[in-house]
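Thought: the user wants the 3D structure for the chain below. I'll pass the sequence to the structure tool as-is, report back what it returns, then summarize two notable features.
Action: structure_tool
Action Input:
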Amino acid sequence: MTRTRQLAGPTPDSAHSVDGSRAGLPFDSSLTAPPRSLSLSEVEPRSVVFLDRDGTISEEVGYVNHIDRLRLFPWAAPAVRKLNEAGMAVVVVTNQSGVGQGYFPEQLVHRVHERIREELASQGAQVDAFYYCPHHPNARLPAYRKVCACRKPETGMLQQAAADLGLDLGSAYVVGDSARDIEMGSRARARTVLVLTGYGKGNYEYRRAEWVNPFDFAQGHEHVEGQPDWVAENLLEAAERIVAETRQGVLKSKSLRVRRLKDPGLKDQ
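Observation:
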């Protein structure tokens, strides 16, 4: 993963990893770091919402191979601001295999993330960090051709963010428009939200027949790959419900939580 700090830039060799080590997980962040006088272990872990990028906070346009192809959804800033105001960390995690395929350089990924940060900041919203994976098992460029720990649905980006920023994965949410996002969240035992923007509506329409009935799941049936905890029209609706759930202290035990898919308005009991 590649990371770009607001306070200190990345080292040249941190752009991608050969061995999946902590230094190499593609990481790109503009973050507000905890006080330097405290170690992360001394800071109480923060609740976090992990957001997919393309199709979730910005329009799905295929590969963003030019800065002008980036278009944030109009509700992205209000949604992120709502999470900020609730005291939750907001971290963007995104697969960017176009780097490994040679469609665009890593520098462009950083530029896109800086543009997102600027546009959100202009409306009073802040993303704590951006993490991305440039790898692909069949990447055209040898340096990026690998089976890594960070490409979704693997959980490497979530784990790295938690270690870097002092985040509580036990109370985490993952919001995205693809089955990969949802499966990544499920593997990390996070609460998952499918948004109907980007590829989300297609995933919902064509895959929901495979999903387990919420009450069957409550009886201990196995999770179905790609099945979210609930579905939201867009990121703003997801943020509003996440904040409401957090305030209500919703239990997140994997064995107890009910998947509200047939009735998105189902209340917690």
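Final Answer: Structure generated. Strands lie at 27-28, 48-51, 89-95, 129-133, 173-176, 191-195, 230-232. The chain has one domain: 12-31+44-247.
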